[in-house]
Amino acid sequence: MSLMHNGKVLWWGEDRRTFVWDPQTNACEPGAGCGTDMCDGVDILCAGHSTLADGRLFVVGGMGPIVDHEREGIPNSSMYDPQSGKWSRRADMKWSRWYPTSTILPDGRVLVMAGSTSGNQGSVVEAVVPEIYDPRLNLWSELPARPTSIEYPFNFVLPDGRILYGGPGSNTGALDLATSTWTSVPGAAGGHNHGSAATYRPGMVLTLGGETMDSGVGQGAVELLNMNVTSPTWVPVPTPTPPPEVRSHLNVVLLPDGNALVVGGGKKNFLCDPLGDPACAVFSAEEWQFARGDPGNPAKVLHLLLNPMQRPRLYHSTALLLPDGRVVVAGGENLDCLQGESNAEIFSPPYLTSGVARPVITSAPASIAYGTYFDISTPTSGVIPMVSLVRPGAVTHGFDQNQRYVPLQFVRQVGYVRALAPANSNIAPPGPYMLFIFNGSWVPSVGQFIQVGSTTPLGPACDNDGKCELAEDCSTCPNDCGVVSGAGMCLACCGNDFCEEGESSLTCPADCIPNLPAMKIADVAFSCVKSGRSVKGRARVLIVDATTGAPVQYASVSGQWTGAVTEGGGGITDYAGWATITTYNGRRPPATFNFSVTYVSHPTYSYQPLLDVETGGEITCGS
């Protein structure tokens, strides 16, 4: 679930469809993404996602096939544009990833770490090689390998530009991207597997909840880390009275005042598992408040127990801050419900229940540059005690990969406050933020979106020069990217990663990378797989070098099943060039399955679909 800079929320689940929800109208908007299929039928469940500098949502990895009883990731990356409501496919990563973390960097690139991938002899292992995506060039690059966590590492940009790996394991450290070297950060407890973390001030991190890595039993430890000091180390927060709830699969939401709201999750012990048992749910909300003058001091942290939720919010639940200061909490598994918790509820933090009128931002700039002053008009400027920026959330599996809290310095003037923008992009990576002001009762205004730093455009605007370039495609720039037949139909769509008829490396370098060998589909073989009382269809797709016929390894293949089932899927070719794609759900026999390949990609081959020998077929299983 992600908050976009238009104030609307994008979410998706297990049915390969995405939805756009407007919190102001409580409506899912047709024509703006409601119920649209995911990009190319790719299953981005359990992917990583973050907001790019220009406000588009970047999604990496997702759910691939089951290998040796373990789920494998996919190498796909996709992008969602809030303005057009459309998905687009981007270049594949070099590594397949399931449960990766995506982190926007100070220069607008994206760091992707961890996730599960295919290992030797069909095993599933951690993708230990981090990758960096450059949205301007649509290219990936690799960093030296470093094991962190196979599931959603807690990564944060530090004020000195390094990247902190803050858990969930205890092997925490900081990565210097300039030298590709790691520095260990000592003092972490036994880990916070299935816990959560947040950077509640620049360079300061809170981590809590989850289970110890060795025992798998839930624990209530809360730790702080201040990376702004000379010798940083993790420090436990003294246990308050009453003690905090012991919960796994929780969510942490940074509020406009810089405090942390904890919601959802459940108890984890030898008798209880929060993966879906509602009897294990923790309903109460909690707030951790940091001392305004000394936020890094664990002895001054306050703990509040707040009103409970109405529904259990266990594994796969989400929560994020809305522009009006409320918090939406949604989803979660529930073994008592066929579709889980297919609902959401809204929480109003204590600052919205005091009855005190909220301050109002009457005007503010649409964008600000680093290190510059800007004015915020408000009729209550004389009593403003705080101005803050909060980066909109992008949360999955209990960890928000995008939220960030940045307090601002300011001076009060008559009718306005003059605030100082963050000093640099290490403090606030470029992109959209919510701007809040507070009154003397510490009640926040409604947040106003403001662009911090450059949008770092991904390429040239549509310039109608007859050449389809990066960031142009046939929907946004038809004069450059559309190849039109006599009937006026667009045959080729430059910008969709397919080098099609009518495109070349000269007219469409975004799709037709020059001097790359071509690959094609040489065969599609079918078989039936027995699954209990059901059967599944299995397709094996052979990818070969179009010139030599040699098998192509590590090609990413996506396909679509129709007929008895309607599902997408994907696989990676092995040493013999074969990728296996099986229907996700079985059907009682007899069952007819239809399959067709929808997408093929490779980092060093160009896919030439016109050379394909076969692209799909039909199989009937059982009689």
Summarize the structure.
With 623 residues, this protein is an all-beta fold.
Give an overview of the whole structure:
The chain contains 1 helix and 52 strands. The protein is an all-beta fold and 623 residues long. Among the domains are: 243-456, Immunoglobulin-like; 459-515, no CATH class; 518-621, Sandwich (Immunoglobulin-like), CATH 2.60.40. The strands form 15 sheets. Strands 1, 2, 3, 4 and 5 form a 5-stranded antiparallel β-sheet that branches. It has a 5-stranded mixed β-sheet with strand order 33-42-41-35-38, with no helix packed on it. A 4-stranded antiparallel β-sheet has the order 6-7-10-11, with no helix packed on it. Strand 20 and strand 21 form a beta hairpin. The protein starts with a strand and ends with a strand.
Main features:
mainly beta; Immunoglobulin-like; 52 strands; globular
Helix and strand arrangement:
Elements: E1 2-3, E2 9-12, E3 17-22, E4 27-28, E5 36-37, E6 48-51, E7 57-60, E8 63-67, E9 70-73, E10 77-81, E11 86-90, E12 101-104, E13 110-113, E14 116-118, E15 124-126, E16 131-134, E17 139-142, E18 155-157, E19 163-165, E20 173-176, E21 181-184, E22 196-201, E23 204-208, E24 222-226, E25 235-236, E26 251-254, E27 260-263, E28 285-289, E29 302-306, E30 317-321, E31 327-331, E32 344-347, E33 367-368, E34 373-377, E35 387-391, E36 395-396, E37 399-400, E38 404-408, E39 410-413, E40 416-420, E41 431-437, E42 448-452, H1 478-481, E43 482-484, E44 490-493, E45 518-531, E46 534-545, E47 556-563, E48 567-572, E49 578-582, E50 591-601, E51 606-607, E52 616-621
Parallel strand pairs: 33-42, 45-51
Antiparallel strand pairs: 1-2, 2-3, 3-4, 3-5, 6-7, 7-10, 8-9, 10-11, 12-13, 13-16, 14-15, 16-17, 18-19, 19-20, 20-21, 22-23, 23-24, 24-25, 26-27, 27-28, 28-29, 30-31, 31-32, 34-40, 35-38, 35-41, 36-37, 39-40, 41-42, 43-44, 45-46, 46-49, 47-48, 47-50, 50-52
